[in-house]
């Protein structure tokens, strides 16, 4: 139904009502005419109105009926309009949610959507579902990207059986797939023990660079040594010429070097460079997983190439054997002639060989079970022999040691010491040299090795540098324990604490010299004696005996305080001692009990004094709380004048720097939330100053505006604290939100120092900001101060006002440990606009506690609410 139809219908109803209202005066006329014999002449009608004046009131019925119908229709129109608006808003919200759900269903997870708050369960659930789907989609995309890359490389690996072609094809496709600009691939040569460059790629041009890297040399060698990825984003200017095979016109911004490892054996290294600042985590994960696939393929190609090489050598040897077969036949006859002579010689040789073999077996058995390792190095410092005892001592076989484990398992310091020893022995062949270093055994255990080297390069039987090494770990441990024992003995002997060691049978094994200060006996008088054989104070005697029994039953550390009575000639006053009884074990068996006693007499005396002082301070603060509480306004008195009001007041300490202020003078009511500098006792002292100055100001002159009251308070605080004098250094002051209320004028005046006033009128929240200026403080010499701003508000019925100190918005809390914030207060007021002021009081009280939870309150909290 459109507006014209509505107006027309309304007019018909009003006219109809007016017509129905005419019935009353018509009936009145008829009754009067019939009952009093009036006629319808003008004179009788006039006489009827004069004799019966009440008939005039019947003429109001048509008007009253029409007006009643009019106001009823207007009210129905307002209700209908409100319902239509709410239905429209809900329909729009539902459409937004439906569109967002449709976007999610179509896979558009980047679609933006805003909920209407914590109460929007459907919207929040859709956002959560969108985020989860987006995360899963990203994970699936990442896995798909890695799988696709692996498929590309796997196809390339199946296409090639030559190392150079395979290397280049794999490198080019990987560079294109991960979108970098340069790359190089190195294959590990097992015979030469070096990494050899097989292929490089830079700026879409294939380059063959003859590069080799030893293990541990450069970044390539370091990656091979550590068998782990090296990732750098800070590249030195000379990197290309020193450690990289990548050549290019531009300096790379990030490099990634990946080892190719198969069954813990190095097969190669692949290197990438990028002009981007960094490689993504997904790219690094992809290359890490791909490395194993490449390493297995490279290993298989190496095996195939080696097999092919052996086959060619075998064919060549077969050909040579055919050529030599004829020559062998010719020589066969000559060999038969000499065979008889050889057989005789062989018999003699076999006897000699048997003796040598027996000697070698004895020597091998001795070397295998020796407590030291004998190793020989050639002039190039490469191991040429190591005794079988290395397996028992280090866990590695002689073959593994000769393949590089002698140096691989050393620390950098160990490598430096070995190099120093070899250099010294070369320069001084007639002398020996001994070093000590740490070595990691095959099982991962670190041990200490002592090695003594001698230069026997000129000895034809040895022809090398011989090194005798032995495990000295136990010796090192014993030396360390001995040093620690000596240090502990020295500390114990010079300690001011009583230290006693008793056996489980109560025998004194040790006592330090301080024992004489407590019992009057020297250590030599008690050591090796039992508790029964020694006369000491009963307190210690009983404690030692009872504690020994208790620890034997339940071996754990015990602590206790004892009062040692005064002993004439030893100490003249009673002492308080804190003693720890510590069980000591040998191979999981309780062996001795160590008693360590510390004199805490002075500490106890100081503690007692502090407790006494704290009690006096606490009593003073409690008395100050009673004084402050007595001057604070009574809520019952405030509610006599402002029945719909509340004060949410939570001091941080016993006394508070924040305080509510209330004053009634004539037809004016003053109420304020005052926040003094600091909290606790300093804040409370400043609150007294503010309280009495405010009382004096408004008591003397009721015509002052709210802003003028703040001005008077400002100058009063400054004068009281002598901040207006030369050389003043007291910068203390206060913030305030002050309201002056006049019920007759229905007027509220507001002035604020750093504090705002919130007014809730209907659905609208209006903020009146306070001045960016505090009450009190040292005046600025070169800047003239402005007076406080006075806000005049003509309040209406049901208007709600809120003002507060900074303690509530500054409180830390919530899941992210953030401030409560003024915005949260405003949102809470708007969201709960229909509740009563008592409801607001309960809401803020509960919300503040939940927000703060277990975090310490950082400031005093004051919030005042008023409703008219």
Describe the 3D structure.
By secondary structure, the chain is an alpha+beta fold. Helix content is 49%, strand content 22%. It is built from 22 helices and 30 strands. Strands 1, 2, 3, 4, 5, 6 and 7 form a seven-stranded antiparallel sheet that branches. The longest helix is centred in the middle third of the chain and has 88 residues, at 281-368. It is flat, with a radius of gyration of 51 Å.
Tell me the major beta sheet: 7 strands, antiparallel
Strand content: 15-25%
Low-pLDDT ranges: 203-208, 241-248
- Radius of gyration, in angstroms, nearest whole number: 51 Å
| Total E-strand runs | 30
If you average the pLDDT, what whole number results? Answer: 82
General shape: flat
Report how far apart the termini are.
40 Å
**Number of helical stretches of at least 4 residues:** 22
Based on secondary structure, the structural category is alpha+beta
Helix proportion: 40-55%
Summarize the structure.
The protein is α+β, with helices and mostly antiparallel strands and 868 residues long.
Task: Throw out a few tags for this protein.
single chain, 868 residues, alpha+beta, 7-stranded antiparallel sheet, 6-stranded antiparallel sheet, 22 helices, 30 strands
